[in-house]
Design goal:
The protein is of the alpha/beta class and about 130 residues long. About 20% of the residues lie in helices and about 30% in strands. It has a four-stranded mixed β-sheet, with helices on one face.
Length: about 130
Amino acid sequence: MAVPKTSVLVLDCAEPKELADFYAMLLNAEVRVGNDPDIVEVVGHRGVHLAIRRDHGYAPPSWPRPDDSQQAHLRILVAREDLDEAEREAVGLGARPLGAKGNDGVRDARLYSDPAGHPFTLAPPG
């Protein structure tokens, strides 16, 4: 019998509370600060659970990587008809659009970096 498990994606950064606030507002979730101020959690509905950890030597990831390999990133699912509004929200909270090839016309997946430089996409399910 397997032991029950769950998983949490952990993002490193220099200021965990600030990055947790960004994701909490973006994902309509709440920030939970525990006994260790270097680890902050973002918890919300429908499976939202992130942890943000302080790394005193943090350097943001590069995007795209020189060898064009895929880096780990968040894929935030948004109804297709809400992509424009979700994009406005993300940018208004401090997300920065990342350049993408073939970024003309209607875009199904939209690529950004969060305030600490982690890449994420807003994309419709499926």
